[in-house]
Design goal:
The complex is a heterodimer.
Chain A lengths: L5 H13 L5 H13 L1 H20 L6 H9 L6
Chain B lengths: L9 H20 L1 H11 L3 H17 L10 H15 L19 H9 L6 H5 L4 H10 L2 H12 L4 H8 L3 H25 L4
Helix pairs in contact in B: 2-3, 2-4, 2-8, 3-4, 4-9, 5-10, 7-10, 8-10, 9-10
The chains are: A mainly alpha, B mainly alpha.
Chain lengths: 78, 197
C-alpha cells in the first residue's frame, strides 16, 4: 500500500522540472524515469503545450482608448 | 562644497523634467505587459482598465520613488496589486475550505479519457477552448490566481512575484504549485464536466 510509485513521484516533480528549479540530481532522476515511461512522458509534453496554450488563450490586448487615456495621464510639458 | 542653493536652478529643473519624461515614456512602453497581468488579476475588462488608469496616475505622481536601474515593470505591478487590494479585494476572502486539488496529471487524464481515443498531446490540448482557460482562471481563488498570473502569464520570477505581492518566496512557490493544479482542475471541469461543445 505504501510502495514507492515512480509515476506519482514524477507527477510531483513536474512543476519544478518545468520551472527549472530542481537540483541536478533531481532533474537527472526525473529524466531517467521519463526516458523509460511513456505514460509520464506524454503528460510532461502535454504540460509544455498546455502552458503555451494558456498563455495564448488569455491574451487580450489593451484597447486604443485605454492607451490614449494612459498617455493623457502624463505630466504636461511646461 | 558648503554652498547649497535652496532654489533649484533652471538646469536642475530641466534635468528633472527630462528624467520625468523619460520615466513616463518607459512606463507607457510597458503598459501592454502590465495590462496583460492586470486583466486577469480582476474579474472584468472594465475593472482592469480602471485599475490601469489608477496605477499609471499614481506611478506618474510618485515617479521619484522609482529607483532607476531596478525592474520598472515589477514596480508598476506592485502599485497595481496594492491598489487592487485597496479597492476592497481583501474583503473577498479566500475560502477556508480550499478544494483538495487533484494532481498535475488530472487534466490530461480527463481530456484523454473523454476524447475520441487519441492521446497525442497536441490533439488533447485542442480539446480545450480559449473560454475554458479564461473561465477557469477566473475561478481560481485570488491568492492563488495572483501568483499564477504573475509567474505564468506575466513571466515574473518567483522573487519578483514575492516582492510585488509582499509575501515570502516560499509562499509564492506553494501558491503557484497549488494554483496551477486548481486551474487545471477548473479547466477539466469546464472542458469535460460541463455541457461540452
Amino acid at each position: 500500500m505504501t510502495a514507492y510509485d515512480p509515476c506519482a513521484h514524477c507527477e510531483e516533480m513536474m512543476q519544478p522540472y518545468m520551472d527549472r528549479v530542481l537540483t541536478d540530481t533531481e532533474r537527472a532522476e526525473a529524466e531517467t524515469h521519463l526516458d523509460d515511461c511513456t505514460y509520464c512522458r506524454k503528460r510532461y509534453r502535454f504540460e509544455e503545450k498546455l502552458r503555451q496554450f494558456v498563455r495564448n488563450a488569455v491574451q487580450e490586448p489593451m484597447t486604443v482608448e485605454l492607451k490614449t487615456k494612459l498617455a493623457g495621464l502624463r505630466t504636461p510639458l511646461q | 562644497m558648503s554652498e547649497t542653493t535652496r532654489e533649484p536652478d533652471a538646469r536642475q529643473l530641466a534635468t528633472e523634467a527630462r528624467d520625468r519624461v523619460r520615466f513616463e515614456e518607459e512606463a507607457l512602453a510597458l503598459s501592454d505587459q502590465v495590462y496583460r497581468v492586470a486583466r486577469h488579476l480582476v474579474g472584468s475588462r472594465e475593472e482592469a482598465e480602471d485599475l490601469m488608469q489608477e496605477t499609471y496616475a499614481r506611478a506618474f505622481r510618485s515617479w521619484r520613488s522609482f529607483q532607476p536601474g531596478t525592474n520598472l515593470r515589477a514596480w508598476l505591478l506592485r502599485i497595481l496589486t496594492n491598489l487592487n487590494i485597496d479597492r476592497g479585494r481583501k474583503i473577498q476572502r479566500t475560502p477556508d475550505l480550499q478544494p483538495l486539488e487533484e494532481g498535475d496529471y488530472f487534466l490530461y487524464n480527463k481530456l484523454e479519457a473523454t476524447g475520441d481515443g487519441g492521446s497525442d498531446e497536441d490533439r488533447v490540448v485542442e480539446r480545450l477552448s480559449q473560454n475554458d482557460v479564461v473561465g477557469a482562471l477566473s475561478e481560481v481563488p485570488h491568492d492563488f490566481r495572483d501568483v499564477v498570473v504573475l509567474v505564468d502569464i506575466g513571466d515574473f520570477t518567483y522573487a519578483d512575484a514575492a516582492q510585488i505581492l509582499d509575501i515570502p518566496i516560499g509562499t509564492v512557490m506553494s501558491r503557484l504549485h497549488r494554483g496551477r493544479r486548481i486551474l487545471k482542475q477548473a479547466m477539466a471541469e469546464s472542458a469535460v464536466g460541463g455541457d461540452g461543445e
